Every structure is written in C-alpha cells, then in structure tokens.
C-alpha cells in the first residue's frame, strides 16, 4: 500500500477504536434513550457501519449489499432521533459484528482502488474521507449523549496547556477581499465548495471566545431577564425554556457549578463558555454592544493570510494541528483555558478559533455560489435555508480530520447539548454596527 492508503487505513482504525470505546457499555445503556434529542448509542454505532456500506462498499466498491434490509432503520431521514429507540435496531453485539464485517471489506476496497482515477468518489480517497469524517462527527454526537446522560468514566480528562486571557480584547480585520471556501482540499464537503471571493468591510472580532467569567457578568447583569438583548424568537425561547444559565450549570451555596460527564465542579471562570444556544450567544453579544460574526467574518479572521493573499488550512498555516496549537481530538473532556494557544493564532491575531468550542455565527446555513451537491443531497443541501445557524471551528470533541478553516457545521438555534460557545464581532464603521 502507498503512503496515502496507509494514512487512510490508520485513520479508519483510529476512529473505529474511539467509536468502540464510546460504546463499551452494558446493552441496556446502549439501547436506552438518554434524551429525546439524541439517538440510542447503539443506533449511532450501526449507522456509521451502514453509512460505510452504502458509500464505500456499494457506491465506490460495487459490492452487493450485505444487509439491505437494515438500510431503512439507519437512514437518518426516515426516522427522527426521538423515534429511533422503537425501531427494530441491531443489538449491540449484532451491531459490532455488522460494522466489523463491513470494515473488513472496506479495507479490501481500499487495497484495490485507484486513488488517482478521475472518479470523484474515489479520487484522492474522497469516499474514505467521507466515512472517516462522518464517524468522527458521530463520535462527537455520542459524547453529547453521554454528557446528557451524566455518565462518568466515558472519556479521560487529559492535560491541557495553561493560559492567560491577558492581551487585547479584539483584533482588527481591515476592509478587503478574501477567498472563502475551497475548490482544492480533497476531503472538503460539498458545502465548503467552491472557493469564491468575498469582500468585507473592516471589522473587529474578539481575540478569544467569550469566557465563563464574562458570560456570568451577563447573567448577573440580568441578561436573562431583559428582553432588550433578545430577538423576539430568542425571548420566546428564553421564556418557554426557563433557561437562566448555560446548560449543565447550577448555583449552590453562592457558587456556580457545572456537571461535566457525571462530575460536578465549580465553573472554571477562564474557560470558554459552552452549552449555550444561538439565542443566548446573540443576546450576550447585544448586551456587550457587539454582535455575532457572520460566517464570512469568522472565516476571514481564522484563515486568511493577507500578506500571502491566500487562505490557510488552519489559523497558523497549513501544517497539521498539534497539542500546542489547538484543543482537538478528545485530549481532555473540556475546552482549554482562554489564551492557552498563542501558537495557534491566526494572521490577524485571533486565537482558539480551531478547537475548544464550536462557535455560533450570525449566518444561516446556505449554499455558496456555484454549490453542487456531492455525493448526495442529504448531507448538506436539504438543510439549506433559514432554519439552521452555522457553527465554525470545531470543539475539543471534534477530530482534526473533520476540522479546518473552511469546515461548516450547523444546528437549530435552540440547541445547547452540543459543545458550543461563541465569540463576538463588531463593524469598524460605527454607522453599521
Ligand atoms: C453536520 C453535525 C449537523 O450530525 O446531523 C452525521 C453530521 N451528517 N451524519 C449531523 C452528519 C450525517 C451532521 N452535522
Ligand atoms: Fe450520520
């Protein structure tokens, strides 16, 4: 096998090891519904195998379906998450056998495939990138399920660099064009394509994500009680939900605590806030006299290199993420302290844009000019519109394989169980704040 194939094989093995670790639990725990927002974990497990069967074995490999009768059960569009516990799911044992059988044949396809053929499904290993990223995304979803379940011991709490938030509050991005999206990154999803020029007026963007200390100041200033800071839909959500703090926070004995994977601890004030919905992020920004960055503003501040006039794959350049540059890949079960990654700064000086927490942007999830669905409409296209807000940057629970400057994630503006925070921006021209 050549180098590229060996790298693909290693990535397939690494992601599967993680999926199996996150589903190493008793059968009743894996088949239970821990939250109506999430699938039973055993659904995610078999679904990643079924996805591999559909795309690598059948579509790319031309292999006869192994278990066509289960396609329907693992089709995310046929059954909303809340209904999945009542489906005739494979048992955990059957699911493990099924996905490992699929995986064996995936390696056969990898062995025989020509990665330089013009077929866009296999060229540069696209279809393998598709299933690797897909499984990583489901692993992050599984962690959100475990967090909602309050389960301890699922994920190790490794060491992260220390940091200090000291430094400028905002960085300046001068007016000008940049290239948004990509036409060249081989594993980029359809929604990141094609590269296109976007001209932005000058703006300021927070150097760091909003931290728990700043967010608590918003809470203590009565932010949750003041409709001035909220959009009408946001205020409606605030009243309906009764929310008064980020999800998983509670106050006791004059101290704010949070539960994180079954463990209760004082809220660490120097960490980026996480588990806030879009409405909370938007209200905070208005209270702070700012606004959320648009997706284009976020991407330019993250990846544009104005001196070289080109987009970087990551804020610091094109080299792969390292533990000194970003908190990615489940190294610890939390975001790192603010200021922990000066080595990960972007050309404009923005920090922690990649890793730690997904960041809400002001933008709806819409197609770029020239978008073409590939390889299927249900990955991105059916979600376009004014229903989902774009999230950028990846969290501590995202894997480097599925994070880059151009990577787009999206969710409903009410969602808080995901590992999500935000940073603020403001227009440099006071006329158009
Ligand atoms: C991009 C995270 C919104 O989880 O619904 C997983 C990713 N797509 N399986 C999701 C995805 C198909 C997707 N998000
Ligand atoms: Fe999926």
From TrEMBL:
InterPro entries: CTDL_fold, DinB-like, DinB/YfiT-like, EgtB, EgtB_Actinobacteria, Sulfatase_Mod_Factor_Kinase, SUMF_dom, SUMF_sf. Gamma-L-glutamyl-L-cysteine binds at residues 81-84, 411, 415. The keyword Ribonucleoprotein does not apply. Pfam families: DinB_2 (PF12867), FGE-sulfatase (PF03781). Pathway: Amino-acid biosynthesis; ergothioneine biosynthesis. GO terms for molecular function: gamma-glutamyl hercynylcysteine sulfoxide synthase activity; iron ion binding. Keywords: Iron, Metal-binding, Monooxygenase, Oxidoreductase. It catalyses: gamma-L-glutamyl-L-cysteine + hercynine + O2 = gamma-L-glutamyl-hercynylcysteine S-oxide + H2O. Residues 11-142 form the DinB-like domain. Its EC number is 1.14.99.50. Its cofactor is Fe(2+). Residues 168-426 form the Sulfatase-modifying factor enzyme-like domain. It is an enzyme of class 1 (oxidoreductase). Fe cation binds at residues 47, 134, 138. Catalyzes the oxidative sulfurization of hercynine (N-alpha,N-alpha,N-alpha-trimethyl-L-histidine) into hercynyl-gamma-L-glutamyl-L-cysteine sulfoxide, a step in the biosynthesis pathway of ergothioneine. PANTHER family: HERCYNINE OXYGENASE, SULFATASE MODIFYING FACTOR 1, 2. Belongs to the EgtB family. This is Hercynine oxygenase. It comes from Thermostaphylospora chromogena.
């Amino acid at each position: 096998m050549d180098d590229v194939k060996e790298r693909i094989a290693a990535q397939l093995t690494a992601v599967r090891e993680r999926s199996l670790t996150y589903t190493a639990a008793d059968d009743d725990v894996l088949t239970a519904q821990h939250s109506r927002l999430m699938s039973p974990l055993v659904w995610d497990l078999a679904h990643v195998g079924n996805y591999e069967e559909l795309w690598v074995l059948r579509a790319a490999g031309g292999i006869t379906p192994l278990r066509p009768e289960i396609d329907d059960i693992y089709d995310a569009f046929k059954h909303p998450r809340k209904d999945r516990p009542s489906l005739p799911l494979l048992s955990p044992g059957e699911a493990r056998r099924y996905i490992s059988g699929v995986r064996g044949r995936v390696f056969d396809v990898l062995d025989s495939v020509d990665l330089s053929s013009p077929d866009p499904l296999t060229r540069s290993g696209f279809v393998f990138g598709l299933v690797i990223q897909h499984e990583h995304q489901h692993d992050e979803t599984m962690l959100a399920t475990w967090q909602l379940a309050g389960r301890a011991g699922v994920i190790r709490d490794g060491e992260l660099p220390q940091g200090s938030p000291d430094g400028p509050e905002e960085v300046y991005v001068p007016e000008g064009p940049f290239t948004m999206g990509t036409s060249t990154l081989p594993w980029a999803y359809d929604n990141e394509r094609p590269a296109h020029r976007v001209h932005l007026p000058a703006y300021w963007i927070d150097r760091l994500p909003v931290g728990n200390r700043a967010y608590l100041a918003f809470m203590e200033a009565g932010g949750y009680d003041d409709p001035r800071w909220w959009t009408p839909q946001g205020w409606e959500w605030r009243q309906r939900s009764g929310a008064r703090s980020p999800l998983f926070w509670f106050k006791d004995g004059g101290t704010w605590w949070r539960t994180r994977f079954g463990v209760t601890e004082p809220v660490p004030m120097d960490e980026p806030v996480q588990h806030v919905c879009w409405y909370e992020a938007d209200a905070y920004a208005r209270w702070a006299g700012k606004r959320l960055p648009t997706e284009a503003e976020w991407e330019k501040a993250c990846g544009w290199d104005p001196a070289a006039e080109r987009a970087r794959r990551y804020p610091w350049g094109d080299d792969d993420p390292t533990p000194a540059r970003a908190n990615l890949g489940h190294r610890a079960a939390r975001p790192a302290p603010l200021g922990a990654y000066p080595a990960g700064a972007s050309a404009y000086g923005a920090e922690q844009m990649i890793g730690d927490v997904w960041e809400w942007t002001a933008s709806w999830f819409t197609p770029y000019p020239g978008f073409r669905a590939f390889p299927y409409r249900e990955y991105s296209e059916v979600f376009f519109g004014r229903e989902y807000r774009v999230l950028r940057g990846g969290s501590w629970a995202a894997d480097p394989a599925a994070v880059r400057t151009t990577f787009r994630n999206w969710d409903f503006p009410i969602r808080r169980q995901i590992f999500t925070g935000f940073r603020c921006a403001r227009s440099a021209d006071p006329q158009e704040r």
